[in-house]
Design a protein that fits this description.
The structure is a homodimer. In chain A, a hairpin with a 5-residue loop joins strand 1 and strand 2. With about 150 residues, chain A is mostly helical. The first copy, chain A, has 6 helices and 2 strands, in the order αααββααα. At the A-B interface, helix 1, helix 5 and helix 6 of A face helix 1, helix 5 and helix 6 of B. Chain A binds a DNA duplex (30 and 30 nucleotides) through helix 3.
Chain lengths: ~150, ~150
DNA sequence: TTATAATAGGATATTATCATCCTATTAGCA
DNA sequence: TGCTAATAGGATGATAATATCCTATTATAA
């Protein structure tokens, strides 16, 4: 479903979301814990730092940390620079023949399914993924419905 | 969503489903109409002929045709030899840590979405995709006649 | 039986993705 | 200042997906 790169990014950011905010985590740490090639993760995170979802600090005591609240970073934000799920042609058949005006028989059905996938990525946040693993967190009250901008 | 190969397979089989049954279609024809590399499509179709969804006939007058009724061939049947959507790990995060017993926070939500995708492929048949295009075929026959692209 | 038209399929080329290597840059601290 | 720890990033290598080339095999018909 996701490319290797996007999956790396997602897993790393979930880990970041579980850290205490404001405290940078080194790539080496993350890569080691997730069993991801360090140099590769480094570039992947660098890409995400350019989009603003994470921030980077160079030099001693540096590292990567979330650029904003985990509850404000959707999976779409994390994955889009690598896989772009959003602007993908809706029709399975490619070829562009299958538009709204000129739809194949599966168009409507597939579009509905496709939208659900999109909605999942747009509405799920890093906070949603991180909290379950956290030892003691009371309830799921923080699960705020984000407006689906389809 | 689908690999190039799987998409080629799907488009070619939809085309086959629109043909009169029992009459083989040459790879060259299909490739030309769909603008797919002929030799590549040839191997792709050959793969599908080994799973039985299509049949092949060598020699003069030969070609490929559906192995059974279009309404009896699901998109899963077509796509599975190349992309295998079915046995994919359910969890986005890979790593196998996220099982039913040991689920991440997104597990349930993602699984539901994932199942819908699976259901679409398992329940939609070639007949579903083919029938809609049939009426319009006459007006569009000349259209695809080798535009100078590439 | 021979010519021809088609798939079968091994070998190879091309391209994109994934990964590593090495050096540059930046920041903190003695 | 100079040492060290970290990201930045260009260059390169490895692997998998995509595509092409060429020959073998098979079926039909003259």
């Amino acid at each position: 479903m996701l490319s290797q790169t996007a999956e790396y990014a997602l897993r790393a950011l979930v880990l970041l979301a579980e850290r205490t905010p404001g405290q940078p985590a080194r790539v080496g740490e993350l890569a080691d814990e997730l069993d991801i090639p360090q140099n590769y993760l480094s570039k992947t995170l660098h890409t995400l730092s350019r989009t603003g979802v994470i921030a980077s600090a160079r030099g001693k005591g540096g590292g990567f940390m979330l650029g904003r609240a985990a509850s404000d970073i959707t999976l779409f934000d994390v994955v889009d620079p690598f896989d772009r799920l959003g602007d993908r042609p809706v029709c399975l058949m490619g070829q562009g023949e299958c538009s709204e005006a000129h739809a194949c028989a599966a168009h409507a059905t597939w579009k509905a399914v496709s939208r659900q996938v999109q909605a999942f990525f747009l509405q799920t946040t890093l906070a949603d993924l991180a909290k379950k693993r956290r030892p003691a967190l009371a309830s799921r009250t923080a699960r705020k419905r984000r407006t689906g901008k389809m």
